[in-house]
Amino acid sequence: MSKISEQELIEAAREARKFSKAKYSKFKVGAALLTADDEIITGCNVESSSYSLTICAERVALTKALSEGKNHFKSIAIAALDDAYCPPCGACRQMLFDYAPDIDVLMADSNGIKKMKLTELLPLAFDESQLGR
Length: 133
Fold this sequence. Notes:
The structure is a single chain. By secondary structure, this protein is an alpha+beta fold. The protein has a single domain (6-130), classed as Cytidine Deaminase, domain 2 (3-Layer(aba) Sandwich). Helix content is 28%, strand content 23%. It has helices at residues 6-17, 57-67, 90-99, 118-121, and strands at 30-35, 40-44, 73-79, 104-109, 112-117. Strand 1 (30-35) and strand 2 (40-44) form a beta hairpin. The longest helix has 12 residues, at 6-17.
């Protein structure tokens, strides 16, 4: 059982959203990744004028955690607009699947939390088993 509640994880994602660098789209996103040892690693989206170089909040949190030696994760919370859930994009789903395929994904809006397994969001995922073919 985690010492960190889902609501605490959502609040950490909302706090991370404040640091978003979304000067082009104005679509601010925060993410909070919960490690297996109950540490919260946050991230926010960072946009580039070369749009393909933009990195999403979920990938910022994941790469930050991995670069700090964290390798096991329980869940990730995503907070964007208060009036709609923000599911992870395809690139984020793939990166999360590569490092945390069994993770819970918590998507928050002002009315509550939608919780799904990553495998529900990315069925028939491409994984390392396809690389050996």
